[in-house]
Amino acid sequence: MIRLEDVTQAYPSSGREGRVALGPVSLEVFEQEFLAVLGPSGSGKTTLLRVIAGLEMPQTGRVELAGLDVTNVKRTPPEKRGVGMVFQDYALFPHLTVWENVAFGLSGRNGAKRARVEEVLELVGLQGMGDRYPYELSGGEQQRVALARTLAPNPRVVLLDEPFSNLDADLRREMRSEVKAILRKLQSTVILVTHDQEEAFDWGDRMAVLNRGRIEQLGASEEIYTAPATRFVAEFIGRADFLIGRRCSEGIETELGVFSLKSSAGRVSQHETWEILIRPDMVEIEPDPKGGAVIVARRFSGIQKLYCLELPSGQRIHSLQPSTRNLPEGSRVRLKVLLKKAICFPQGS
Amino acid sequence: MAVSARARRLIKRRSSARPWGLWLPSALIALGMAVPLVYLLYQASSVAPDVWARLLQTRVPGLIVNTLLLTGLVTIGALGLGLLLAWLVERTDLPARKILRSLFIAPLIVPCYLVAICYAAFFGANGLLEKMLQSFGWEMSVPSIYGLGGAAFVLILATYPYVYVIVRASLERFDSTLLDAARACGASRVRAALRITLPLLVPALSAGGVLAALYSLSDFGVVTTLRQQTFVSVIYQQLTGRYDPSAAAALGALLVLLTLLLLWGQGRIWGRRRFASEKPSGRPAPLVRLGRWKIPALALIVVVLIAGLLLPLGVLSFWLVNSWLIPQTNALLWGTSGNALLNYLLNSFTVSVAAASLAVLLALPLAYASVRYRDRWSQTWAWVSQAGQSLPGVLIALGLLFVVLRFLPGLYATVLLVILAYVVRFFPQALQALGSGLAQVPACLEEGARLLGHRPLSAFARVTLPLLRPALMGSWILVFLSALRELPATLLLRPAGFDTLPVRIWTAASEGFYAQAAPAALGLIGLSIPLLFWLHRGSSAQGSVKSYD
Description:
Low-confidence stretches of chain A: none
Strand content of chain A: 25-35%
Pfam family, one (chain B): BPD_transp_1
Helix content of chain A: 10-25%
Order of helices and strands of chain B: HHHHHHHHHHHHHHHHHHHHHHHHH
Number of helices of chain B: 25
Number of helices of chain A: 9
Oligomer: heterodimer
Mean pLDDT of chain A: 87
Transmembrane segments (chain B): 20-42, 62-88, 100-125, 145-167, 198-217, 246-264, 297-321, 341-369, 381-404, 410-427, 471-493, 513-535
Distance between the termini of chain A: 34 Å
Family (chain B): Belongs to the binding-protein-dependent transport system permease family.
Membrane topology (chain B): Multi-pass membrane protein
Strand content of chain B: under 5%
Subcellular location (chain B): Cell inner membrane; Cell membrane
């Protein structure tokens, strides 16, 4: 449905060199797919959406929508793409009522228009609110109007630019599942951009992690968590510690033992020092006065406790334990890493 | 991240996909606005060396001293008075602060040349004050109002409101937790004021100070009436009395240089420091108790209000009553002959409406280009088009005169030329008002309209234009008001017999027919009041566009 090939986009700046905001990026989104794009701020997430929407013209590469080349913004301007977008702060027209906002993208006879507006307002649960002005609505209601306005002309593709970031935490979760249900029902193709991991995990069929304008990994949420492709992804998604080790014949040797390798041995042989990804939920601990690690801090967060452990070498790693378990600070523990295959990265990568 | 050479070439090529329908008009308008100034400088560069030598040896040194003295005095006076009044109404327990807050900007309703005329007639030789004293049987000599002191006094009264408005706004936004933090660090109240409040007011003070300085550099009415020689008054004399255009061009170029130096200096003050606290102010700062200082503070306020507002209005009203009592004047003013007041009013209205409409219309594409496409070219054009800003009206008229005489002699002494002068002179006001209005309309609204199937022009017309209406109104009124009160350029450029209200006031007063000037003057003031009120209200209601956020 959407296909990007080697797209780059740089904004002109006053200096001699433009700043690359995106790319080169290649990406394919399938019909009716829900894709979540996750990245830190300034990673080019919004730019990606703007390129697809036709609000920016990429400098290089090719953009395709439903098999049609739409790279050239002059030839296929935003209004001719059939792409809908919900903006971060909704961009509701303040001088128009809810009804007029939703009807804005509709053309044709008044009767058909009216019917469609009513239909869409009902879809988002705002029937009877058509006469209000945007400033008279709560944040959640504004969000629904923005969605209704985007959906009214029946776009082939819906782009959501951090649409929930202006809502408070409870409402955010609720709106997310509601919006998801609506869009699933309409069988839309959707890209959601966010910097919130939970949102990205919960949203998509697949998710893409964006960093400094490039896609670091694209895949199912679980795969990205358990098998991050780059050190950035490993660190950015979830909590991560990195254990330093050296190459040996069986794999990688660390102070916690030897880890066998998941990645191909050929790559390993080229580097001497490696970092092994350790997540807190992989680390099992047992109180043991003769154990090698010391609990230096612990953080209580309701259901779970996060223990910070110091290894003999001074390196620290974390362990996540149920709150029912209570180990005092300063006590010695023995630890075991529940890991079949190690995910590792050459140091300094 | 840097871009490879190849990518940069591509950027260049693809971003040449600019909307030429917007770009070309913007460039032409911007260049058009700069033509008079550029041509004036060109004229000055072709002035014969012996003329320069003569000027530099005779007039220039004295003029520079005179002009700088006046500018310095006015700037210091306006800064002091404006800061003091702003502090009194914002930070002390002065009574009736709410009323005073608006009363302090009231002197803006009287154009400064009117104030000067009233002062000259009141304090001058054989003036109202002397007559009043004589009627009580007192023989006293009134201190002279003419010269540096008098001109500076009147100009301070005319400029302090600008400083006051900017400083007050800055005090209002001030984050008082900064003061609490300073006190918590062990600073005394006075030390906190000197080390925290005052430095944070530097941007406001420097902006206000520059406004006051530019105002006195470019003033024509006050210095001419009160006979203080400055660049402007001498240039005017060169053009009207002795008609020496090359000397006028040379002096004009020097005045441009002086103005540029001033603006450059303002840029220096700021440096790298940041003065704006990002946080919105939370709790209002505690008020200072004036105690026994309340009496002197109130006395000062009374003096300022009398001097800036009541005295001129009183003098004008006195003449107005007089004009009714003298039958000939009465007939002359209110009759149906060509000299009738209504005629001047109509003239003033016609040119001001035309100038305001034209200025706003021309400023719209330029404002749009510079706000929406923040690239080098649109910024340059916005900058170029503001050439007229902060330059004296006399210079604009002078430059325009040169251009017209050289290239379009048919335009000489036409109403159209007067309108053009207004447009060039007040274009920056329209551009700035529209620009700040546009900046408040988020670009994503237009993008949203595009994604909903509307073409660029339709998106602009249906979304941006309606939201821009307050800014359009505001900038139109701003230009209209300025044009309505414009004096020097009109005096220099108008066709014979085409008198506007200010011109009528000016000529009547300079011949001593004050009674004839009064009704026109009060009419001008009466017209200004509702417009100024609208502008003032509008500026405090700014930001309503995004208020739903």
